[in-house]
Design brief:
2% strand, 11 helices, mainly alpha, two-stranded antiparallel ribbon
Length: 254
């Protein structure tokens, strides 16, 4: 990790600060007495939170990256082919089958709910946490990949832990915290394996969220060990599949 007194150190601190506050800008603004109203539509507050998070990531990356590096590359947005994402999606099929066996398919899902929870919000989270919080640190600021994966995963887990009630959420919130941290590490490592691009981690994120919202589980079953094991197995299979079938080029992080 660069020294905090070096230019790269200051850039690292700014990037990590952006990751930490990106999804909480409206809360911070409200605490400062400057509330930002939600968008006048369903999911308006959450959608605006996620749009502000993406804007934060894009602006900080544009400010801190070298001039000769395209913005898309600095955040891992360049498309390098479908092989990685397709392999990840195939690795999640057993999880889908298991959830189908444990629950029942929602035959009339709300399209807007699926769009937001399974596609829009995961994309925004990936750009903020893995784009700015991982790929930018590795590609632009030359952090070791294993080290860059840690802070974004912890912050990703913390925001979901707070959403689950924080200290008031008890053991359930702690279980969610642990699962989300594991997910954040896995998403980052998939992106590392797929040449520092977001798309393989996003494929896993979308697939797990989509399955979670398409299959109806009893409340007691939602965090049952069987369901947790299915989700963790999908994460492990995705990482192992890419590790076996894809090898990141030696120059990818340079």
């Amino acid at each position: 990790m660069p020294s905090s007194t070096s230019p790269r150190g200051w850039a690292s601190l700014l990037a990590l600060l952006g990751v930490a506050i990106g999804l909480n800008l409206r809360d911070l603004s409200a605490a400062a007495g400057l509330p930002i109203p939600r968008l006048p539509m369903p999911f308006g507050g959450s959608l605006l939170d996620n749009l502000l998070a993406v804007l934060t990531a894009v602006l900080l990356a544009a400010l801190l990256k070298p001039r000769d590096l395209p913005l898309a590359d600095s955040l891992g947005l360049r498309w390098h082919g479908a092989r990685g994402p397709v392999l990840v999606l195939l690795a999640t099929l057993p999880c889908w089958i298991g959830l189908a066996a444990l629950g029942r398919l929602d035959t009339a899902p709300a399209p807007l709910t699926l769009l937001m929870l399974a596609f829009v919000f995961p994309l925004a989270e990936e750009i903020l946490y893995r784009g700015l919080g991982f790929i930018f640190l590795v590609r632009v600021l030359h952090w070791p990949a294993w080290l860059a994966a840690l802070p974004q995963a912890l912050m990703f887990g913390a925001v979901h832990w707070l959403g689950a009630g924080g200290l008031d959420g008890g053991a359930t919130a702690l279980q969610i915290l642990a699962l989300i941290i594991v997910g954040g590490l896995a998403f980052a490592w998939l992106n590392h394996l797929d040449r520092l691009t977001l798309w393989s981690g996003l494929a896993l994120h979308i697939s797990l969220n989509l399955a979670w919202n398409l299959f109806i589980l009893d409340e007691a079953m939602a965090l049952d060990w069987k369901v947790t094991a299915l989700r963790l197995a999908a994460v492990a299979m995705a990482v192992l599949t890419l590790a076996c079938w894809l090898r990141p080029p030696a120059q990818a992080a340079r």
